[in-house]
Amino acid sequence: MPLSDATTVPDTSPYDALLLVSFGGPEKPADVVPFLRNVTAGRDIPDSRLEEVGEHYYQFGGRSPINGQNRALLAAIREDLAAAGIDLPVYWGNRNWAPYLVDEVARMRGDGVRRALCFVTSAYSSYSGCRQYREDLTAALAELGDAGGVDLVLDRTRVYFNHPAYVDTMVDAVVAALAELPDEVRTDAEIAFVTHSVPDSMNASSGPTGEAYVAQHRSVASRVAAGVAEATGTAHDQSLVFCSRSGPPTVPWLEPDVNDHLRARADAGARAVVLAPIGFVSDHMEVIYDLDTEAMATARELGLPCTRAATAGVEPRFVAMVRELLLERAAAERGEDPSRPAVGDLPPAWDRCAPDCCANARSQREALVGAASSIEDIGAPLP
Ligand SMILES: CC1=C(CCC(=O)O)c2cc3nc(cc4[nH]c(cc5[nH]c(cc1n2)c(C)c5CCC(=O)O)c(CCC(=O)O)c4C)C(CCC(=O)O)=C3C
Ligand SMILES: [Fe+2]
């Protein structure tokens, strides 16, 4: 029998494992305070803010949806790889809650993994979403030391905000959320693209040349809005707004806040709004509390019809994107010139972060994992 295409196994070398890297969240009330201590270690979050955030978790039984979302993603990635004929172990570790990165990295080394590619559940460049994870991974490797003389190398996929699979998934989610609005307001509805607020200074230092966090979100917002217009035949006004700010009020963070935005738009006569959480790849606490609970209450108070677009979660195209990013990067590491799909006005992001990419002035930690030795060596055009 001749070999069919289906028997051609995609080449993942030089990688012998994939590591799903995420934030972590509490799973029961007793986890909440220790989790918040982990998140805010060494940072300047007022106690009043921690109590407030703790309350958000207690309202949901002390359980964040994020770990369940990651377990589902892990299972879906494994299934997708197996269906493509790829036999590669997939691990999962978090920054702030079990399974912790340091334990998972130790397990990988114990299993004999030599080189793994990390997929981080944050799609954009920022200290919180990119560099801090690379610091955590560097620290996890350092903690292992050279016991046993086994070297484990970790790389990280490019940030994937503008990967067509992510953008198309969000287009369909916004179209579905528009369909949930009352018929008489649907064509006039505005889209509010929502992401996590960060300090202005964190945006300023994001990406290899700065300001990447906002630029990447704006690029996704216009591309998704264009896709929605194509799909529905209606151009909807759109804005980029922010949720979940913290830190002292004296420190400027990205604005407008989603609730202030809803108030301003209602005052200006807006008829309906779709909240599109492009900054979150699954239903985190920010999504179920800050958007579904708080922002929805604001909209109700204002009499403004409002629906929320779904996050990517385990949407099959998003899951397949993880495999595509793995095969793309594996090919690049073998010296091939893979295609790097990207949509919108920004090029596909760099494979390796420039030395100062997403730097945080206060962090003294090394971010060697995923880093290039110089800005010329990042494996992509500068944006
Ligand atoms: C850019 C960004 C993402 C990326 C988007 C992504 O990766 O998806 C993200 C993700 C997340 N942030 C999360 C939770 C928290 N973030 C906090 C604090 C902060 N986030 C920040 C930024 C971001 N955060 C910043 C600049 C701070 C303050 C300073 C600091 O501490 O760095 C705090 C402390 C209390 C508070 O200030 O709110 C908590 C509890 C969870 C888990 C949710 C769950 O449980 O479902 C997730 C996925
Ligand atoms: Fe970075």
UniProtKB/TrEMBL annotation:
Localization terms from the record: Cytoplasm
Protein name in UniProt: Coproporphyrin III ferrochelatase
EC numbers: 4.99.1.9
Major localisation: cytoplasm
GO biological process: heme biosynthetic process
Family annotation (HAMAP family): Ferrochelatase
Amino acids binding Fe-coproporphyrin III: 64, 133
One CC-aspect GO term: cytoplasm
One GO molecular-function entry: ferrochelatase activity
Organism phylogeny: Bacteria, Bacillati, Actinomycetota, Actinomycetes, Propionibacteriales
UniProt keyword list: Cytoplasm, Heme biosynthesis, Iron, Lyase, Metal-binding, Porphyrin biosynthesis
